[in-house]
Structures are given as structure tokens and as C-alpha cells.
Amino acid sequence: MSRPIDRRDFLRWTGLASVAGLGLFSGRTLFADAQPHVVVIGGGTGGATAAKYLKLADPGIRVTIVERNRTYLRCYGSNEVLNDDITMADLEIGYDALKNRYGIEFVFGEVDNVDVEQRRVRVKGGTTLDYDRLIVSPGIDFKYGEIENYTAEVAETSMPHAWKAGPQTTLLRRQLHAMPEDGTFLIVPPANPYRCPPAPYERASLMAEWFAKHKPKAKILIMDVKDGFTKDQPFMLAWSRLYGFRIPDSHMDGMPSDVARPSEEGRIEWVSGSNGGKIVSVDPERGSVTNFFGDEIRADVTTVIPNQKAGKLAFRMGLTNDAGWCDNDRYTHESTQAPNVHVIGDSIVADDMPKSGFSANTQAKVAAAQIAHLLRGEEPEEPGWANTCFSRAGSEYGVSIAAVYRYDHDSGRIRSTPGSGGVSPLDANAMTNRLEGLYQESWMRAFVQDCFY
Predict the structure, then answer these.
(1) How far does Cα 164 stand from its chain's mean position?
(2) Which of 14, 31, 157, 223 could form a disulfide with 60 if both were Cys (CB 3.0 to 4.6 A apart)?
């Protein structure tokens, strides 16, 4: 029978308690006979966490990760490459700890086919893996074509979105550093839902601080299809204090009484969707975009972040719905389209949960725990999830958001727990803002450690 979630459940599923203190993640094998095999497709944050926590749940479970790349390049934190706080090499994560410490097996290669009926994964090159349960963490793909003239080629050559760490990150950094001293950096965020909702605005923050030091006359223009965004008020308050941002009337509710309202725009300007922020086309040769009203806006550097959908593998496996995301039984994250296949991470419909690395991490822990129960013929336990995200508005100014989520039995959906979490308070003092900036770095290190080490 299901039990209401309590603090012990929350700590169990989110991994915030000591693993050694949890009955499920005890390190004891409970399989006396045949060794069950779980295959994980995708060695990113979700897949790596799921594999690790399956082995913590029971070392007797054989776990194999199928991954294309021998080194993982994390997306979270990659904005810091643009302003030289870190290098691309700092984003690289190896798999030796997962192999050597937990005994996780790896097959490096591209998935060729998944036979759900036979429970078999075939990898290009000839490797075949039979499984008892399959975990798929396919990540995201991009909806090119929704903005006229914005194609994958344009993204790779002239208007990079840099929403997956890699060559586009390097290209965007090079463009920003070569931008004229009085140039304009245009950011076009996508519509919801998308991976890492605060990241476009953190990108604006980090570059505003960098411009202040290296290109004092440069400006940042955000043309947004939305009329609000995650952590918008804390971000705007930080922009006001650090970069002379004029907070719009629509976001002044609850702001400190001494907040400045300059008559002119500061280093950052944000245009909401209802005020013309929706972009409908781009002209790479002219370096311009055109909004819904027909206005052409030119910039020296433009990053257009496309609307998003589940990764290509999810479509190939038939796991997606009409909206392009993966439906799943929220209680176990088992796909509604394929039995014995569990889907986690940015590709899934997760209701109140955002698409974030931390969300993928806690979804992976839930899936791992439930699969361990199912393999033993036990009833799954009441799941719980969490999300935490620290963003930098400046090198010594952070903004954060956190929430705890529960399974709603009436709707079968993931819902935010009333009274849990919240965003950085608008009445926080300067020391709190500075500490949140410092917490971001510590949080990142601890998070990577939990996923991959």
C-alpha cells in the first residue's frame, strides 16, 4: 500500500540523506538466483545518476550504460565559458568512477535499434544487450523551422544557440569577444517548456558583467516570447542594482521601495512577448531578427535558442506524444508507450517540475529505487522529487529557486508541495545575495559529484 510522503521518504528519493543510512540503498544484494540486467541508454546526468543509484540499491543488479561519447560535456555551467570563468575542459566529466567504484559496465556507441518486445538493445557495430528493465534518458532536440530561416546550419555557423555544450559554445564565445566595443548582444529565449529555464537570463547576466569590464559601451537585448520567466523578479532586481536595468511596471510588485527606476535602459533591456519580443524570422546575412509586429532588429552577436522537444531516440522508439515529449507513469517513470522502459530527464512530461539537471537527477533516483523494487517483485514506494537551481546574476550576486514535489494520486501527476521551496527573497540583504553567488559554485561541485562519482 502507498504511504503519504514524509521527511524520510523525501530524503530517500532525493539522495540528500546519507546513502549508508537508507535501507534501500544499503549495498546488500538481495538476488540469490539469476542476476537481473538493467540497460541505461544515455550517460548524461539522468542516465549516470540512475545507473549509480541502481548499484547502490543492490550491487547484484547488472547495470550497463550505452553512451555515444567517452567523455560527458555538461551543459549546466557552460555559460561560464562565455565570460572566461571556466574553459571547455572544465565541463568534461569522465566515467572511470562509475566503472571502477560501482562496477557499472559501458558500451560506447550509437543505439541502432531497441526491440521492446524482446527486451533487446542493438548497438551499431554489433553489440547486443538483453535487459530486464530499460532506462532511457534521451535529452532534448530542437524545433528548427519554427522561426523562419533559423536552421541547424545557421545555428552552427552564425547564430549559435549553444544550448548543448560543444562547438557552438566555443563559437558564441569567440563572437562575443570579437564584438565591437559598442556592440549589441541579442538573446532570443525559447517558449516553455525548455531545458534549464533560468539559463538565458544567467547568460545575459554574466555577459553584462563581462562587458562592463571589457566593452563598457556594449548592450544586451533580450527579445522574449514570454511575458515572464523563472526567477524573473530576483534577476531583474539584480540587473537593476548591477547593470542599471529599468524594471518594468509589470514586475514591480513586491520590489524594495528604494529600487532605482532610471529613465533610460541600462546595459540590459528585456522586451516581453506582448511588447514585441516574439521573433518570427532571422536574417543571418544582415545579422537581424524580425518580430511579430514586423520590426527588424539588428545586432552584432545573436543567440537564438529554439523551442525544444524530446531527443531523437525517443521519437525512434515511439515514446513521444503529439507535443513531442515522453509521457510516463509518474509513480515509476515507466513509459506509457513501452512496457519495462523507464524514461527520465528533460525529455519527459513532468508536470510541475522544470526541465533541469537537478530534476533529472531526482527522477533518476526515483526510477532506480522503483526498478529495484519491481525486480524483486515488490510494490513501488511513494515517490518524491526535488529541484534546486542557483544562477549567477554577477560574480558575487546569486539567485536561486527550490521546490519539493509529490505524487498526486487523484490526477496521477507530479505536483509542487504547498509551502515548499521558493525563490530568492526580494528583501534579502547584500550578504545573502553574495552568499547565493558563492553557493552556486559549491552546489555545482556537489551536484556533479552526486551524479558521476
Answers:
(1) 10
(2) 31
| Count of Cβ atoms closer than 10 Å to residue 367 Cβ | 29
Element (H, E) at 72: strand 72-73
For residue 193, say if its preceding peptide bond is cis, omega within 30 degrees of 0.
yes
The x, y and z cell numbers of residue 38, run together, are: 538493467
Q: Distance between CA atoms of 66 and 39, rounded to whole angstroms?
A: 7
Q: In this structure, what DSSP letter does residue 264 have?
A: S
Distance CA 390, CA 444 (A): 9
Q: Give CA–CA dist 327/350, Å, rounded.
A: 8
**pLDDT tens digits, 129-187:** 999 999 999 999 999 999 999 999 999 999 999 999 999 999 999 999 999 999 999 99
Nearest CA-CA partner of 220 in 85, 77, 79, 388: 79
Beta strand pairing status for 62-67 and 105-108?
A: parallel
- 376 vs 3, higher pLDDT: 376
Q: Give the H/E segment covering residue 286.
A: none
Give the whole-angstrom CA distance, residue 299 versus residue 237.
25
The reported pLDDT for the residue numbered 265 is 87
Rounded CA separation 152/190 (Å): 15
Q: How far apart are CA 280 and CA 259, in angstroms?
A: 34
Q: Cβ distance 238 to 393 under 8 Å? A: yes
218-235: string of b/e by CB count within 10 Å (b at 16+)?
Answer: bbbbbbbbbeebbbbbbb
Q: How far is the CA of 123 from the CAs of 98, 229, 247, in angstroms?
A: 21, 40, 52
Chain CA centroid to CA 337, Å? 24
48 phi and psi angles, rounded to 5 deg: -65, -45
10-60, pLDDT tens digit by residue? 334 344 432 323 345 555 556 656 899 999 999 999 999 999 999 999 999
Give the whole-angstrom CA distance, residue 172 versus residue 169: 5
Using only the alpha carbons of the chain, give its radius of gyration. 22
